[in-house]
Design goal:
The complex is a heterodimer of chains A (about 120) and B (about 110). Chain A has about 120 residues and is mostly beta strands. In chain A, about 0% of the residues lie in helices and about 55% in strands. Chain A contains no helices and eleven strands. In chain A, strands 2, 4, 5, 6, 9, 10 and 11 form a seven-stranded mixed beta sheet that branches. The chains are: A mainly beta (about 120), B mainly beta (about 110).
Chain lengths: ~120, ~110
């Protein structure tokens, strides 16, 4: 399967700080990447679709001014959590579109755990 | 109603046992189906795609029933390393290939 990396894997920060998370596709070009958030014992929730060279598409209820997404190249998308608060503490995971056999699917990065104090 | 629903379990089984579980999906236009595995505090990893005719990958067998809109996963000869949460995932061209995730079924294999 395709390889997707994320950095950093852990972030602990003070309330009000902005945090930037990088997602990279290592061995393929990804015109579309996705950003998810997962709270404990819950399913992944899609936050936004990141499109190379254009604006991200946000899911309903996700504040675009708070979660800034930039997909500046075919291998890199970034998510910036601006003015993070404790309720933003979560597991943030990116993915990139790829193929499994004849079916289109997504390959996930290892995730970033954000803890806002 | 959630788009993908799964029995959360947990399914506690001894090594060597067979365990099976289902998920149901609500969107009849769903086109692609997958099982992902998620270990505790890790990202989901693709376990297998699910094809209409059913398919096997080693000890894992997946089935799709479009008429009843459910997908199943069967694990034979369970290993301790099979302990994980199994996510049922579907996508649809009509949903711009976004994946819809179930909340997961937890399987614990004991020695």
């Amino acid at each position: 399967g395709a390889v997707v990396s994320q950095h950093p894997s852990w972030v602990i920060c003070k309330s009000g700080t902005s945090v930037k998370i990088e997602c990279r596709s290592l061995d393929f070009q990804a015109t579309t990447m996705f950003w998810y958030r997962q709270f404990p014992k819950q399913s992944l929730m899609l936050m936004a679709t990141s499109n190379e060279g254009s604006k991200a598409t946000y899911e309903q209820g996700v504040e675009k001014d708070k979660f800034l997404i930039n997909h500046a190249s075919l291998t890199l998308s970034t998510l910036t959590v601006t003015s993070a608060h404790p309720e933003d503490s979560s597991f943030y995971i990116c993915s990139a579109r790829g193929s499994s056999g004849s079916q289109e699917t997504q390959y996930f990065g290892p995730g970033t755990r954000l803890l806002v104090l | 109603r959630k788009e993908v629903e799964q029995d959360p379990g947990p399914f506690n089984v001894p090594e060597g046992a067979t365990v099976a579980f289902n998920c149901t999906y609500s969107n009849s236009a769903s086109q692609s189906f997958f099982w992902y595995r998620q270990d505790c505090r890790k990202e989901p990893k693709l376990l297998m795609s699910v094809y209409s005719s059913g398919n096997e990958d080693g000890r894992f067998t997946a089935q799709l029933n479009r008429a009843s809109q459910y997908i199943s996963l069967l694990i034979r000869d369970s290993k301790l390393s099979d302990s994980a949460t199994y996510l049922c995932v579907v996508n649809s061209l009509l949903n711009d290939y976004k994946l819809s995730f179930g909340a997961g079924t937890t399987v614990t294999v004991r020695a």
